[in-house]
Amino acid sequence: MLSLSVGQLLTLKVENLSFGGGRGVARHQGFVIFIPYVLPDEVVQVKVQKIKKTFAEAELIKIIEASSERVKPPCKYFEICGGCVWQHIKYEKQLEYKQQLYIHFLKDFPEVKILDIQGSDFEYHYRNRIQVQVLEGKVGFHQRKSHDMIEVDTCLIAENEINNHLDRLKSMKSGRYEIYRDPENYNILHRSQKNKSEALTFSQVNERQNKKICNELIAWSSQIKSQKILELFCGAGNFSFPLLKAQPHRQLVGVDGSSFLINKAKSYSNERSKFLKADLNSHFVSKNFSHEHFDLVLVDPPRVGCTKDLLTDICKLQPDNIIYISCNPSTLARDLHLLSQHNYKPIKSQAFDMFPQTDHIESMTLVSKK
Ligand SMILES: C[S@@+](CC[C@H](N)C(=O)[O-])C[C@H]1O[C@@H](n2cnc3c(N)ncnc32)[C@H](O)[C@@H]1O
């Protein structure tokens, strides 16, 4: 019988890293224990914090045998702030772990060609927007596993100019704010997160990595004979416009639920593109496009992925190819299973490290009709 209690001290060897927090996985009498801020093969002393039905959580007390891949985390708030989880791991090794995790997510599709992950040119200072808390003249982030705030004077994954803006928020009313680089004029601005429509103004956080995805998307789609593209979750046209610019023979219809983003896209559109504001969880695709043919459907949904209904509606359009850009490999794998029930199979897939120092994985997958 398992002998495990909250507060118990254990010495464990870490087996691997898990997705969804980037914690280490170790076992006590075969029972899984998650431990933050460790590396595979390390021997660590931990204190059990929570015991659930199928796993337990423990906090790191002492590293007994450190991994040679361990580095000193450069941020003074690491382990207190809830943002980064992998600053203690050499960047090249972070990429290896992400690639391994990504391959594991796609393990049910042995036929898919998984290309090497594209690393980020900047390991730090890559974010062009961050969300902060303002409380009685102090600016900071949520502490890990808590609603308390930790006051910060810098965030090492944010661009330097974003950090230079932190002080300006001290005079603002208490609340949540986003500091961001305006993609149009490159100015650094802030906005309250109270206003729902403003909060819906999605943009990619890592511009250089975003460019790499755009370039790959152009290269992959140039291999596909297609006249008309349907782009779902198109935002303000982050992918649409580079695609149309590189491939002047194409037309594109873009759909997104944010009126702010769609209006922005409309302001740049021309006779080859059309942008529509719609909720994609309401059979919009089958109601509006069932008589149109698209050779390529591009989707870039939020972390929850696509709904079953949306995927079914896309498959009914019978496009030869679907390119799926994902920020969550877990919902991507679920959606690929659904697509394969509709006779579509993933052909090739690649991860892109948009978020160094975290376990988040962005990726792009080409899915074709069987
Ligand atoms: C990951 S972002 C991608 C945006 C765009 N492709 C880009 O790269 O900037 C997901 C997008 O889905 C949109 N969205 C979320 N839920 C939606 C829904 N139910 N219907 C339509 N659009 C939705 C958001 O407004 C957001 O623009």
Present as ligands are:
S-adenosylmethionine
- Run of helices and strands: EEEEEHEEEEHEEHHEHEHEHEHEHEE
Average pLDDT:
95
Could you name the CATH homologous superfamily of the largest domain? Vaccinia Virus protein VP39
The neighbouring-strand order within the major sheet is: 6-17-18-16-15-12-13-14
CATH class of the largest domain: Alpha Beta
- Kindly identify the CATH topology of the largest domain: Rossmann fold
Question: Spans of 5+ residues with little confidence (pLDDT < 50)?
Answer: none
SSE-based structural type: alpha/beta
Tell how many strands the DSSP assignment holds.
18
Distinct helical segment count: 9
Domains (count): 3
Per CATH, the architecture of the largest domain is 3-Layer(aba) Sandwich
- Proportion of residues in β-strands: 25-35%
Report the sheet with the most strands, covering strand number, pairing sense and barrel closure. 8 strands, mixed
What percentage of residues falls in helices of 4 or more residues? 10-25%
- Rg estimate, integer Å: 22 Å
Overall geometric form: globular
End-to-end C-alpha gap = 49 Å
Features:
alpha/beta; OB fold (Dihydrolipoamide Acetyltransferase, E2P); Rossmann fold; 8-stranded mixed β-sheet; 5-stranded mixed barrel; 9 helices; binds S-adenosylmethionine
